[in-house]
Amino acid sequence: MVLARVARALMILAAILVSLSIVGIDITVLGVFGGALGVGLGFGLQKIASNYVSGFIILLDRSLRLGDMIGVAGSQGTVTQIRTRYTVVRGLDGIETLIPNEKLITDVVQNHSSYLTRGNAKIAVQVSYRSDVERAMQLLVEPTVGVERMLQDPAPAALLASFGADGINLELSFWIEDAAKGTGGVKSQVNRNVWRLFSDHGIEIPYAQREIRILNNTSFLLRFGSKYRAPRERRRTGRVSVGSEDQSADLSGKCTPVPAVDFFAIR
Q1: Residue 248 has pLDDT above 70, yes or no
Q2: Which domain holds residue 236?
Protein backbone atom coordinates (compact mmCIF):
# COMPACT_ATOMS: atom_id res chain seq x y z
CA MET A 1 0.00 0.00 0.00
CA VAL A 2 2.87 2.37 0.79
CA LEU A 3 4.60 1.60 -2.53
CA ALA A 4 1.34 2.26 -4.37
CA ARG A 5 1.05 5.69 -2.75
CA VAL A 6 4.66 6.56 -3.63
CA ALA A 7 4.14 5.44 -7.24
CA ARG A 8 0.98 7.52 -7.50
CA ALA A 9 2.80 10.63 -6.19
CA LEU A 10 5.61 10.13 -8.74
CA MET A 11 3.13 9.72 -11.58
CA ILE A 12 1.34 12.94 -10.60
CA LEU A 13 4.67 14.79 -10.47
CA ALA A 14 5.66 13.47 -13.92
CA ALA A 15 2.29 14.50 -15.35
CA ILE A 16 2.73 18.05 -14.01
CA LEU A 17 6.21 18.36 -15.56
CA VAL A 18 5.00 17.08 -18.92
CA SER A 19 2.08 19.49 -18.86
CA LEU A 20 4.41 22.43 -18.21
CA SER A 21 6.59 21.42 -21.15
CA ILE A 22 3.57 21.14 -23.46
CA VAL A 23 2.33 24.65 -22.68
CA GLY A 24 5.82 26.08 -23.38
CA ILE A 25 7.08 26.75 -19.82
CA ASP A 26 10.78 26.05 -19.42
CA ILE A 27 11.03 23.80 -16.38
CA THR A 28 14.74 24.62 -15.94
CA VAL A 29 13.67 28.07 -14.68
CA LEU A 30 11.97 26.31 -11.82
CA GLY A 31 15.23 24.62 -10.79
CA VAL A 32 16.10 27.26 -8.18
CA PHE A 33 12.64 27.23 -6.67
CA GLY A 34 12.62 23.44 -6.82
CA GLY A 35 15.88 23.28 -4.89
CA ALA A 36 14.62 25.58 -2.15
CA LEU A 37 11.37 23.65 -2.02
CA GLY A 38 13.29 20.39 -1.77
CA VAL A 39 15.36 21.65 1.17
CA GLY A 40 12.22 22.80 2.96
CA LEU A 41 10.45 19.51 2.34
CA GLY A 42 13.54 17.65 3.50
CA PHE A 43 13.53 19.37 6.88
CA GLY A 44 9.77 19.11 7.18
CA LEU A 45 9.62 15.42 6.31
CA GLN A 46 12.62 14.44 8.42
CA LYS A 47 10.51 13.15 11.32
CA ILE A 48 8.10 11.39 8.98
CA ALA A 49 10.94 9.66 7.16
CA SER A 50 12.48 8.68 10.49
CA ASN A 51 9.18 7.14 11.61
CA TYR A 52 8.86 5.17 8.38
CA VAL A 53 12.42 3.84 8.62
CA SER A 54 11.86 2.93 12.30
CA GLY A 55 8.67 1.11 11.34
CA PHE A 56 10.50 -1.02 8.78
CA ILE A 57 13.19 -1.81 11.40
CA ILE A 58 10.56 -2.94 13.92
CA LEU A 59 8.83 -5.13 11.33
CA LEU A 60 12.10 -6.70 10.18
CA ASP A 61 13.74 -7.47 13.53
CA ARG A 62 10.39 -8.37 15.16
CA SER A 63 11.40 -6.78 18.46
CA LEU A 64 7.70 -6.06 19.08
CA ARG A 65 4.77 -8.30 18.29
CA LEU A 66 1.01 -7.94 18.39
CA GLY A 67 -0.28 -8.64 21.88
CA ASP A 68 2.90 -7.55 23.69
CA MET A 69 2.38 -5.57 26.89
CA ILE A 70 4.81 -2.64 26.69
CA GLY A 71 5.55 0.61 28.48
CA VAL A 72 7.03 3.57 26.62
CA ALA A 73 6.87 7.38 26.84
CA GLY A 74 4.62 7.26 29.91
CA SER A 75 2.09 4.95 28.23
CA GLN A 76 1.48 1.31 29.08
CA GLY A 77 -0.73 -1.13 27.25
CA THR A 78 -1.06 -3.88 24.67
CA VAL A 79 0.24 -3.57 21.11
CA THR A 80 -2.76 -3.91 18.79
CA GLN A 81 -1.37 -2.60 15.48
CA ILE A 82 2.11 -2.02 14.02
CA ARG A 83 2.08 0.38 11.07
CA THR A 84 5.00 1.76 9.07
CA ARG A 85 4.64 5.21 10.69
CA TYR A 86 3.16 4.49 14.13
CA THR A 87 2.23 1.73 16.55
CA VAL A 88 -1.14 1.49 18.29
CA VAL A 89 -1.02 0.70 22.03
CA ARG A 90 -4.27 0.05 23.90
CA GLY A 91 -4.04 0.99 27.57
CA LEU A 92 -5.59 -0.82 30.52
CA ASP A 93 -8.41 1.76 30.45
CA GLY A 94 -9.26 0.91 26.83
CA ILE A 95 -7.83 4.12 25.35
CA GLU A 96 -5.66 3.61 22.27
CA THR A 97 -2.49 5.67 21.88
CA LEU A 98 -0.65 6.20 18.59
CA ILE A 99 3.08 6.10 19.34
CA PRO A 100 5.48 7.19 16.56
CA ASN A 101 7.82 4.37 15.63
CA GLU A 102 10.82 6.62 16.22
CA LYS A 103 9.95 6.60 19.94
CA LEU A 104 10.08 2.80 19.97
CA ILE A 105 13.58 2.86 18.48
CA THR A 106 15.20 5.75 20.39
CA ASP A 107 13.45 5.52 23.79
CA VAL A 108 13.63 2.79 26.41
CA VAL A 109 10.78 0.30 25.90
CA GLN A 110 9.73 -2.04 28.69
CA ASN A 111 8.26 -5.30 27.38
CA HIS A 112 6.22 -7.08 30.06
CA SER A 113 5.32 -9.99 27.76
CA SER A 114 8.58 -11.91 27.91
CA TYR A 115 8.70 -15.68 28.36
CA LEU A 116 8.65 -15.05 32.13
CA THR A 117 5.05 -14.17 32.96
CA ARG A 118 5.71 -13.55 36.64
CA GLY A 119 6.81 -10.22 38.04
CA ASN A 120 8.25 -8.88 41.28
CA ALA A 121 6.37 -6.34 43.39
CA LYS A 122 7.14 -4.58 46.66
CA ILE A 123 5.14 -2.81 49.35
CA ALA A 124 6.52 -0.54 52.08
CA VAL A 125 5.21 -0.28 55.63
CA GLN A 126 6.48 1.64 58.65
CA VAL A 127 6.30 0.44 62.26
CA SER A 128 6.89 2.36 65.46
CA TYR A 129 10.23 2.26 67.26
CA ARG A 130 8.32 0.90 70.26
CA SER A 131 7.20 -2.17 68.29
CA ASP A 132 8.93 -5.55 68.21
CA VAL A 133 10.68 -5.39 64.83
CA GLU A 134 11.47 -9.12 64.63
CA ARG A 135 7.85 -9.98 65.33
CA ALA A 136 6.67 -7.41 62.79
CA MET A 137 8.92 -8.90 60.09
CA GLN A 138 7.57 -12.39 60.82
CA LEU A 139 4.00 -11.16 60.60
CA LEU A 140 4.70 -9.22 57.41
CA VAL A 141 5.06 -12.43 55.38
CA GLU A 142 1.75 -13.96 56.51
CA PRO A 143 -0.58 -11.58 54.57
CA THR A 144 0.69 -13.05 51.28
CA VAL A 145 -0.78 -16.50 52.00
CA GLY A 146 -3.96 -17.24 50.08
CA VAL A 147 -3.84 -14.12 47.88
CA GLU A 148 -4.83 -14.80 44.27
CA ARG A 149 -1.92 -14.95 41.78
CA MET A 150 0.60 -14.77 44.63
CA LEU A 151 3.59 -17.10 44.18
CA GLN A 152 5.17 -18.88 47.14
CA ASP A 153 8.23 -19.92 45.09
CA PRO A 154 10.29 -17.76 45.29
CA ALA A 155 8.94 -17.16 48.76
CA PRO A 156 7.94 -13.65 49.90
CA ALA A 157 10.65 -11.90 51.91
CA ALA A 158 10.43 -9.20 54.58
CA LEU A 159 13.31 -6.75 54.74
CA LEU A 160 14.31 -3.92 57.06
CA ALA A 161 14.82 -1.14 54.52
CA SER A 162 15.87 1.86 56.64
CA PHE A 163 15.33 3.89 59.81
CA GLY A 164 12.98 6.80 59.24
CA ALA A 165 12.22 9.95 61.20
CA ASP A 166 8.93 8.58 62.55
CA GLY A 167 9.50 4.82 62.50
CA ILE A 168 11.31 1.80 61.07
CA ASN A 169 10.75 1.25 57.34
CA LEU A 170 10.02 -2.36 56.41
CA GLU A 171 9.63 -3.75 52.90
CA LEU A 172 7.81 -6.83 51.66
CA SER A 173 8.98 -8.32 48.35
CA PHE A 174 6.94 -10.99 46.54
CA TRP A 175 6.34 -12.48 43.07
CA ILE A 176 3.06 -12.31 41.16
CA GLU A 177 1.86 -14.65 38.42
CA ASP A 178 0.79 -13.00 35.13
CA ALA A 179 2.17 -9.61 36.13
CA ALA A 180 1.17 -8.22 32.72
CA LYS A 181 -2.45 -8.27 33.92
CA GLY A 182 -1.54 -5.68 36.57
CA THR A 183 -0.27 -5.71 40.14
CA GLY A 184 -2.48 -3.07 41.79
CA GLY A 185 -5.18 -5.49 42.95
CA VAL A 186 -2.69 -7.89 44.50
CA LYS A 187 -0.87 -5.08 46.31
CA SER A 188 -4.15 -3.71 47.64
CA GLN A 189 -5.16 -7.11 49.06
CA VAL A 190 -1.76 -7.57 50.71
CA ASN A 191 -1.92 -4.07 52.25
CA ARG A 192 -5.37 -4.79 53.69
CA ASN A 193 -4.14 -8.05 55.17
CA VAL A 194 -1.12 -6.29 56.69
CA TRP A 195 -3.36 -3.66 58.29
CA ARG A 196 -5.67 -6.26 59.86
CA LEU A 197 -2.82 -8.49 61.04
CA PHE A 198 -0.82 -5.63 62.61
CA SER A 199 -3.96 -4.33 64.35
CA ASP A 200 -4.68 -7.79 65.81
CA HIS A 201 -1.13 -8.20 67.18
CA GLY A 202 -0.63 -4.65 68.47
CA ILE A 203 2.01 -3.62 65.92
CA GLU A 204 1.79 0.17 65.74
CA ILE A 205 1.96 1.98 62.40
CA PRO A 206 3.15 5.49 63.39
CA TYR A 207 2.08 8.84 62.06
CA ALA A 208 4.20 11.97 61.81
CA GLN A 209 4.78 13.79 65.12
CA ARG A 210 6.86 16.90 65.74
CA GLU A 211 8.12 18.34 69.04
CA ILE A 212 8.60 22.09 69.49
CA ARG A 213 11.38 22.94 71.96
CA ILE A 214 12.01 26.56 73.02
CA LEU A 215 15.68 27.13 73.84
CA ASN A 216 17.33 29.46 76.45
CA ASN A 217 14.30 31.41 77.76
CA THR A 218 10.57 31.84 77.42
CA SER A 219 9.72 35.48 76.72
CA PHE A 220 8.45 34.14 73.39
CA LEU A 221 5.53 32.77 75.39
CA LEU A 222 5.08 36.13 77.13
CA ARG A 223 4.96 37.94 73.80
CA PHE A 224 2.93 35.48 71.72
CA GLY A 225 1.31 33.15 74.22
CA SER A 226 -2.08 34.91 74.23
CA LYS A 227 -2.32 34.63 70.44
CA TYR A 228 -1.99 30.86 70.57
CA ARG A 229 -4.35 30.16 73.48
CA ALA A 230 -5.28 26.47 73.46
CA PRO A 231 -8.82 25.20 74.18
CA ARG A 232 -9.52 24.47 77.83
CA GLU A 233 -9.82 20.76 77.33
CA ARG A 234 -6.46 20.67 75.51
CA ARG A 235 -4.35 23.00 77.76
CA ARG A 236 -1.04 21.58 78.80
CA THR A 237 1.75 22.68 81.15
CA GLY A 238 5.29 22.31 79.82
CA ARG A 239 8.72 22.51 81.38
CA VAL A 240 11.10 25.08 79.92
CA SER A 241 14.81 24.97 80.67
CA VAL A 242 16.37 28.38 81.47
CA GLY A 243 20.07 28.07 82.25
CA SER A 244 20.35 25.51 85.02
CA GLU A 245 16.82 26.02 86.41
CA ASP A 246 13.48 24.68 85.19
CA GLN A 247 10.41 26.89 85.16
CA SER A 248 6.80 25.91 84.55
CA ALA A 249 4.95 27.56 81.70
CA ASP A 250 1.22 27.29 81.02
CA LEU A 251 0.91 27.02 77.22
CA SER A 252 -2.51 28.67 77.37
CA GLY A 253 -0.83 32.08 77.72
CA LYS A 254 0.25 32.41 81.38
CA CYS A 255 3.94 31.96 82.09
CA THR A 256 6.68 33.09 84.41
CA PRO A 257 8.44 36.33 83.33
CA VAL A 258 11.99 35.73 82.09
CA PRO A 259 14.54 37.69 79.99
CA ALA A 260 14.22 38.22 76.24
CA VAL A 261 14.15 35.11 74.02
CA ASP A 262 17.21 34.33 71.95
CA PHE A 263 15.82 31.76 69.53
CA PHE A 264 13.66 28.65 69.42
CA ALA A 265 13.99 25.46 67.42
CA ILE A 266 11.55 22.94 65.95
CA ARG A 267 12.49 19.34 65.50
Answers
A1: no
A2: 212-266
